[in-house]
Recover the amino acids of this structure.
């Protein structure tokens, strides 16, 4: 298949690299359209076409292409999209969808094998897999993402990806020991699975019987077992929206590495994703909870070129100090002033500054006894700070 | 959600008040005068109980005429009091029922709004997975309830 992003030529032959496979399925050729009633055929699981997964997959692939900074160079992105008519209204997505292959079973099968082959022999590399579409679970541990030609015949599960088989198939000492899987789909068991003992089997990868498996390979599921993943038509799935927020800065780890680089780790991404998806769902009066499966170990997904910017709230006490209070932001060594003479238009006032430690001056001008200026207050700008930093001026 | 006009207790109370007709002014004075005249006529009849049979027959005939007028006046006086009591009872009952009716209409509006057959009844979010027969049964039930609500509160 044609790679959507191919930088393999730029990398040294044999040097470790990152390879990504992104699949987004909204259009289902054998299901009723999104606004129609579901089919009575139990093997179609009461499904209709979707309108959000391809958008989410495209946004993630675009972020990988433009912003992704893994520990090793990004060498390739394989992208397969089956967008809905609604999503084709997005000109950029439509142009991309015209360039890449659709997410049919044959195409995804080939892409999975080629992705694995590209990763083979690169234990220091990184593998990224993103799957989004309708989902179904056979049990609490067997999850499937349905592909564009799902339900083409009665062996409906032949047209799906078996997440577990793919995850197990990526184990082995010759494959990247740093892997990240994102599965954005429902995890509900269709009632047809109670009626049919077998209805086909999902795509997987060759699995070794035994051997060491030391890799870090978390699987970020957009929904907990037995629950639904949700999408907002026109804006992508809630999971993809949350993932973008996290990758833009929300998921930054609290601590920089020894070289002073801010990064997103497997665990910081988990915490931020759980929080953000729950917030988005709650905004609709719904409930959705990210859970992580697979194999979680310490690993870095992404390094920020510059510290990401995050909001920080500073509150004044007493409130009547607001009109005469001015803030100066310094770096922690007080060698450079980041922001000067900032007014407190609100109390608390929110500023967006790069993540890190700062020294804050709150100056009372003109003198207004009994209010007193405060100089050199340490302020941490981090992703998970609860409530505003209060400054007592009297 | 569609808004429905639900009459409040005050509106129903006003309606009940309009049905109560009270005697007042000239009509009230006339009714009292007629009754007083009737009582005087009765007293006169008592004093004439020993007169000749022919005279008594003529007086009795007159009395029956006056009696009809007096009963009309008494009916107008006491009947309006009775009517007022009934109206007040009806008013109190209407107030109680108006509250229940308002709650019923609100419930109906809510059920109609949640009808899965309408765009408003469907969540604005899509679900990326099976709906299942249990979910379908719940939707069918909601649709049936919405149909009943529409029939009772069109």
């Amino acid at each position: 298949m044609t790679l959507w992003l191919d930088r393999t030529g730029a990398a040294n032959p044999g040097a470790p690299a990152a390879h990504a496979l992104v699949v987004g399925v909204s259009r289902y050729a054998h299901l009723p359209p999104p606004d129609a009633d579901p089919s009575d055929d139990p093997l179609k699981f009461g499904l209709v076409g979707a309108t959000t997964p391809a958008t989410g997959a495209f946004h993630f692939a675009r972020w990988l292409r433009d912003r992704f900074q893994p520990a090793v160079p990004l060498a390739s992105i394989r992208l397969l999209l089956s967008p809905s008519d609604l999503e084709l209204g997005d000109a950029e997505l439509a142009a991309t969808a015209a360039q890449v292959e659709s997410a049919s079973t044959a195409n995804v099968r080939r892409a999975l094998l080629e992705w694995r082959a590209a990763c083979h022999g690169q234990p220091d590399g990184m593998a990224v897999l993103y799957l989004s579409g309708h989902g179904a679970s056979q049990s609490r541990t067997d999850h499937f993402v349905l592909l564009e030609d799902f339900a083409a015949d009665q062996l409906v599960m032949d047209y799906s990806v078996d997440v577990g088989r793919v995850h197990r198939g990526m184990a082995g000492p010759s494959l990247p020991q740093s892997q990240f899987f994102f599965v954005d789909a429902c995890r509900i068991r269709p009632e047809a699975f109670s009626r049919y003992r077998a209805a086909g089997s999902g795509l997987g990868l060759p699995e070794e019987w035994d051997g060491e498996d030391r890799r870090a390979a978390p699987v970020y599921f957009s929904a907990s077992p037995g629950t639904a993943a949700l999408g907002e038509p026109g804006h992508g799935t809630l999971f993809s929206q949350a993932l973008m927020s996290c990758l833009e800065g929300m998921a930054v780890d609290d601590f920089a590495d020894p070289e002073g680089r801010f990064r997103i780790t497997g665990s910081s991404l988990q915490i931020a994703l759980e929080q953000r998806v729950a917030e988005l769902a709650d905004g609709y009066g719904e409930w959705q909870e990210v859970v992580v499966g697979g194999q979680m170990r310490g690993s870095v997904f992404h390094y920020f070129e510059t510290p990401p910017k995050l909001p920080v709230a500073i509150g004044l006490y007493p409130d009547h100090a607001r009109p005469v209070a001015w803030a100066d932001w310094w770096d922690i060594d007080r060698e450079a002033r980041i922001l000067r003479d900032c007014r407190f238009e609100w109390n608390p006032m929110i500023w967006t500054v790069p993540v890190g430690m700062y020294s804050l001056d709150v100056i009372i001008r003109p003198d207004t006894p009994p209010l007193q200026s405060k100089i050199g207050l340490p302020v941490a700008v981090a992703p998970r700070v609860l409530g505003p930093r209060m400054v007592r001026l009297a | 959600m569609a808004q429905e006009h639900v009459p409040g207790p005050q509106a129903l109370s006003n309606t009940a008040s309009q049905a109560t007709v009270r005697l007042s002014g000239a009509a009230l004075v006339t009714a009292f005068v007629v009754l007083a005249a009737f009582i005087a006529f009765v007293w006169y009849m008592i004093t004439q109980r020993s007169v000749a049979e022919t005279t008594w027959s003529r007086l009795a005939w007159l009395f029956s005429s006056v009696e009809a007028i007096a009963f009309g006046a008494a009916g107008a006086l006491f009947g309006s009091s009775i009517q007022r009591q009934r109206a007040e009872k009806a008013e109190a009952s209407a107030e109680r029922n108006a509250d229940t009716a308002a709650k019923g209409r609100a419930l109906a509006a809510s059920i109609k709004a949640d009808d899965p057959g309408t765009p408003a009844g469907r969540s604005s979010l899509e679900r990326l997975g099976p709906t299942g027969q249990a979910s379908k049964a719940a939707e069918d039930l909601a649709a049936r309830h919405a149909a009943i609500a529409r029939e009772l509160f069109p």
In short: Chain A has a mean pLDDT of 91. Chain A touches chain B through 32 residues (CB under 8 Å).
